[in-house]
Design brief:
five-stranded antiparallel sheet; four-stranded mixed sheet; 12 strands
């Protein structure tokens, strides 16, 4: 649970740091109220008595005091007292200075750590000096925004009026943040809208694809049914044509064979025709009568020729190779 909380704190810190970095990258006129290029004017004071020129008129002023102008006090406190360092410094100053330091203003910072102790440096200045600085700025029609110790120390200001002077800036920052959030919201909303439109198009295309697939399947089934029907019709037509050819062949045989010859058996097998029968003529006469027919290719004797004593006729078996196209033509 602690690890999860630590990760959340780290992510939050990174987000804040990223926002501050991005904020610093923006041009000053964009992040300052009224599109100002500079929010406050900085004045460095290195000596007392001091003088401030009239260029600060009508401006907020950040005053930086040279550390040499201030009384400095060194303290050594246990590291365990770091959490209550401000209270520890205040107690030491009030106990070590006459009047409890009521006429002084001070700030402190940790200079270094040595073992289990902290070396603390305290900067002190008379409250009257700070009041004189504010009065001088007021006489120049300027307002003291902060009065602090100059240098690379991370010290809080000795006097800080930013709660009042930066009120409009904070409002401006809120407005800027809202505008940025609104801008990102509009972009995000546009992305969502575009994504929704794309999703709707994809759904429509999927629906059209499904409809086309269903139509194609129906068309295929219809085509298969029509193909089956066509095949059935073709088979019926072929059967009808075959029957017509057989009937045509029988009629032709009836026409070319005289009364002395009759057929006892007639079998169609593909393109061949097998004839069995009796004739009172020579078998060659029967072959000569059949051979000229248009659908006949060849006539062969397929069995022995015998004399039937009962009918007093010659019994024969013939194999006829037919030409179906010839039969159709006729």
């Amino acid at each position: 649970m602690k690890e999860h909380t630590g990760i959340q704190a780290y992510i939050g810190w990174r987000l804040v740091a990223s926002w501050r970095w991005a904020y610093q990258q923006l041009p000053a006129w964009l992040v300052l109220p009224g599109f100002l290029r500079q929010w406050s004017h900085t004045v460095q004071i290195d000596a007392i008595p001091f003088e401030i020129d009239g260029s600060v008129s009508g401006q907020f002023v950040d005053v930086e005091l040279n550390p040499a102008l201030m009384l400095q006090k060194q303290l050594i406190v246990p590291h365990a007292a770091k959490a209550k360092l401000a209270r520890t410094v205040e107690l030491d100053v009030r106990q070590s200075l006459p009047g409890g330091g009521d006429d002084l203003v001070w700030v402190s910072t940790i200079e270094k750590r040595e073992g289990s102790n902290l070396h603390v440096i305290v900067y002190l200045i008379k409250r009257k000096t700070l009041e004189q600085i504010e009065e001088l700025l007021a006489s120049k029609n300027a307002i003291a925004r902060t009065i602090s110790v100059s240098g690379g120390y991370k010290l809080k200001p000795l006097i800080d009026h930013r709660r009042v002077t930066d009120r409009s800036r904070r409002v401006w920052d809120i407005v800027l943040v809202l505008l940025l959030v609104l801008s990102f919201g509009l972009v995000f909303w546009g992305e969502l809208r575009e994504r929704a439109e794309l999703q709707a198009r994809i759904s429509l295309l999927q629906q059209q694809k499904t409809e086309l697939s269903t139509g194609l399947l129906s068309l295929r089934e219809k085509l298969e049914n029509e193909s089956s029907s066509y095949s059935a019709i073709l088979n019926d037509a072929n059967a009808l044509m075959s029957e017509h050819q057989r009937l045509h062949a029988i009629l032709d045989l009836t026409e070319v064979l005289d009364d002395k010859t009759w057929i006892s058996e007639l079998v169609f097998s593909g393109s061949n025709l097998r004839l069995s029968g009796f004739t009172g003529d020579e078998i060659t006469s029967v072959i000569d009568a059949i051979r000229p027919l248009g659908w006949v290719n060849r006539v062969d004797i397929s069995g022995p020729i015998t004399f039937d004593t009962y009918t007093r006729k010659n019994r024969f078996d013939l194999s006829v190779s037919t030409n179906k196209a010839g039969v159709i033509d006729n």
